[in-house]
Write a structure and sequence with these properties.
Elements (H helix, E strand, L loop, with lengths): L3 E5 L8 E4 L13 H12 L4 E5 L4 E5 L7 H19 L4 E6 L6 H12 L17 E5 L3 H22 L7 H15 L2 E5 L1 H6 L3 H7 L7 E7 L10 E5 L1 E5 L20 H15 L6 E10 L11 E3 L5 E3 L7 H11 L7 E6 L3 H7 L4 E6 L2 H14 L3 E3 L17 E2 L7 H10 L6 E5 L4 E2 L9 E2 L4 H11 L6
Helix pairs in contact: 2-3, 3-4, 4-8, 5-8, 7-9, 8-13, 9-12, 11-13
């Protein structure tokens, strides 16, 4: 259940309260007792950013943000304060956030961190115990700002739910149905290709990966095309939708590496959540999301190492490893994206262990082609939302590593530069400005601030911020 954000004119002495203030504040004006004021001043000497007072019938937390020169880092610090406050207010039913500086934008940042921290995934528990915090009231914040943040948070929750959902409850068809639900709620046109249609248009990569499965693949097209769209050519988002990955016949060799492979549709979950946020906030931007989806399992009919697959665009691919399956289904989607004459294409995928090994769960790995300015804008948005991009080199030297002796290209580049050669494989299927995002930050095995433990939803806020700023002359 999503935390509900609401507007409130003022707080009362009965409200749980988070109050942004400063050291020069006259605390007696805030009706604190002498004993409480003495405690506050003592804590301030210790440079505390959060001072919480238990008044028995409520909690009051005073927030004293430290000065930081880097605006982006400061904003992230405020969001993380919201995360820390969840320890106090997560068990409460409601809390009010206000500031002695009535123009403070930090109220929204606190609310963002606190509400994202409040996420729980309890669907499969016999005795579900989600966090009690149902409502967060904001003072001196506009209705529009509250509505926008609410829709973004809802979309991150939606993405987290999709990625946390096990394969037993989320096949490729289930994923497509979730996209339909989002479309119906937000005015997004959703078209789903079934296996017969996918066979008809000869998406060889998607069909090859699906050969070992008992469940049919899907190819989902989500299109948000408002009449007042500011872009003549759409931005296309492509998300890898491998709902479960065993590695196929190239069975994953690493111990305990399959238990989390439900998250291999993290790219799909991200683009569905991103277009959900864009449409629910009615951004005047034409956006298309493409989601190729299947599971990857071994069977007597599964595609095999050594096979040559004819892709959607006619490229012949030599398969050296069936665990390099994500790039096979993404390649068909990237080729299909050409139909839209896109302004820019961004793909999101849990594509390689190499990306995880390189940066851990702290961000996203990026590569790009013919999109220097676009990538710089996306990287800037990543800094602003603290969903940062670690740019990998994309030198032409790597092109030779995917050349095949018997086909046009091969789906594995060798033992070194694995994330880069995967990107080079995808690049073969693009003829437009393109950014590739490999997603180690999609899931965290330990609590990672307000992103929590499990699916982080990383990427949704990044895309939303990027798209909004791109078409609003820098206004955010």
């Amino acid at each position: 259940m999503t935390t509900i954000l609401k507007k409130k004119k003022s707080f009362s002495e009965k409200d749980n309260l988070i109050l942004l203030t400063n050291k020069k504040q006259n605390f007696s004006e805030l009706n604190f007792s002498d004993k409480e004021i003495k405690h506050i001043k003592k804590e301030l000497k210790n440079e505390k950013e959060i001072i919480t007072i238990n008044q028995y019938d409520r909690f009051v937390s005073l927030i004293f943000p430290k000065t930081q020169k880097n605006k982006n880092q400061r904003n992230e610090t405020i969001r993380l304060i919201g995360d820390k406050l969840h320890t106090t207010f997560g068990a409460e039913k409601s809390v009010v956030i206000s500031a002695t500086n009535k123009k403070s934008k930090d109220i929204l940042l606190i609310a963002e961190g606190l509400s994202l921290s409040n996420y729980t995934f309890t669907q499969h528990k016999s005795d579900p115990k989600p966090n009690n915090l149902k409502e967060i009231f904001l003072i001196n914040v506009s209705d529009g700002e509250i509505s926008e943040l609410q829709n973004i948070i809802d979309s991150v929750y939606f993405t987290r739910d999709l990625i946390n959902q096990p394969f037993s409850h989320l096949t490729a068809i289930d994923l497509a149905n979730q996209a339909k639900i989002s479309g119906k709620e937000n005015g997004i046109k959703v078209t789903v290709f079934n296996k017969k249609k996918i066979e008809g248009i000869k998406m060889g990569g998607l069909l090859a990966v699906n050969k070992g499965s008992l469940d049919e693949p899907t190819f989902t097209i989500m299109e948000w095309s408002p009449k007042n769209a500011k872009n003549k050519q759409p931005i296309v988002l492509v998300g890898k939708g491998v709902v479960y990955d065993t590695g196929g016949l190239s069975l994953k060799p690493t111990a305990n590496s399959m238990d989390l492979m439900k998250i291999d549709m993290g790219g799909a979950g991200t683009v569905i959540g991103a277009i959900n946020a864009i449409a629910s906030n009615k951004l005047p931007v034409h956006i298309v999301a493409l989601v190729p989806a299947t599971d990857n399992r071994p069977s007597g009919n599964a595609y095999a190492p050594g096979d040559v697959i004819t892709m959607y665009d006619g490229t012949k691919v030599e398969v050296l490893n069936t665990d390099a399956e994500g790039r096979m289904i993404l390649a068909d989607a990237l080729s299909y994206a050409k139909k839209y004459n896109p302004e820019l294409v961004i793909d999101f995928a849990t594509l390689t262990g190499a990306a995880v090994a390189a940066i851990g769960h702290y961000g996203l790995v990026s590569m790009h082609k013919d999109s220097e300015k676009d990538h710089a804008e996306l990287k800037k948005s990543g800094q602003e939302m603290h969903e940062r991009l670690a740019e990998f080199p994309f030198w032409s030297d790597y092109d030779d590593l995917i050349k095949s002796d018997i086909a046009d290209i091969k789906n594995l580049g060798g033992p070194y530069g694995g994330a880069i050669t995967a990107g080079k494989f995808l690049s073969h299927f693009t003829d437009y400005p393109w950014i590739h995002i490999d997603m180690p930050g999609v899931y965290s095995k330990v609590k990672y601030g307000y992103r929590g433990k499990g699916a982080t939803g990383m990427g949704v806020r990044l895309v939303y911020n990027f798209v909004k700023k791109r078409y609003s002359n820098g206004k955010i």
